[in-house]
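Known limitations

Files may contain more than one protein. Parsers should not assume a single record per file. Below, a two-record file is shown to illustrate correct handling: read the sequence, read the token line, then continue until end of file.
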Amino acid sequence: MQLEIRPDPAEVGRARQWARSRLAGLGITADEPVAETVILLVSELVTNAVVHTDRPSLLRLFLPDAAPGAMPPVRLEVADTSTRAPVPRCADDDATGGRGLALVDCLADRWGWNAEGTGKNIWCELDRSAPPSASRTAAYENGHCPYGGFAFEAV
């Protein structure tokens, strides 16, 4: 499943709405813990594409087929035509942005990026069957930022 994203900030809300409807169609209910995390990750990745590339992008949502009772991971991808690599950074206390990839790193079980065609693909995965791991969140306790000397606060 995929959605074309225009380089317009209004597209972030449209992407969240689209992702909610796709999750429901895949049997992931709004009260399932992974659902709102997926929506937050969609918001962060699409916002990054809109703000930092100023080019159209493509949002993809994958839920692989699985055996009955299995809960495969949910995978999100945002592909764009910019060759600029994503650079995680931490914002200082007064900044109004700069926390997106730090949130992705904290919330996703895995994330990364790779070259794709003439641009790149930023992806993340969430395991549906496991609670958030302590190792994912431990680095962020007390405002510690693994990307440099700056602290960040998720509000």
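...continuing to the second record:
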Amino acid sequence: MIAPLRIAACAAFLFSGTATMADVVEPELGSQVALLVGSERVALAALPATRVERLATARQRAAARSAAPVTAFDYSPATLAQMPPAQGGRQWECLTKALYFEARGESIPGQVAVAEVILNRVDHRAYPDTVCGVVSQGAATGAPCQFSFMCDGHAETVAENGAWRRAGKLARLLLDGAPRALTDGATYFHNTAVRPRWATRFTQTARIGAHLFYRDPDKTASN
């Protein structure tokens, strides 16, 4: 009997696209690997697109956690200016949009604080488990939007390129593991100009710029 570990190793080699079945010397091993790879591809094709996206997002988050984390950031314009332009996939774009349309008038710490709320929600069991899901929550169902820019009736047009680039860099830093050290695990925020009734039910954790931040009662401080 051929060891399972040898089959798995060859399957990974073939699945990577760097080899063909002809590259596998042993015929018996080759046939077992072909069967294994074929089964994996059938199973993957049967998954809903949303499930595949969630799996990919979870893998990206795990990779970010295993990579060397960003342990300090001084939130200064000079530091951001020295960074190259940021880029990323759909989750990065959703976070960048949220920072730009919801908080571009805030200071850098103020924008980071809003990003913390979004990512804390992604990690919380009560909210969608992707950035895009959190940002768009309520927009497609008729329920109250969690982020006002999603339902304010205005086109999402980027008119301030500098602010967009800054939001993109901040989004990249936070998605890559920069510490969430400003809001103490907050999952809610509101402008200081309003007094929503829901705020009395939660624990206020920070006041940064024009926003107050709150944490769910059952959630301890963020990591």
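Parsers that stop after the first record will miss the second one. For reference, the second record is described as follows. The helical segments are 4-15, 27-46, 49-66, 77-82, 90-103, 108-123, 131-135, 161-175.
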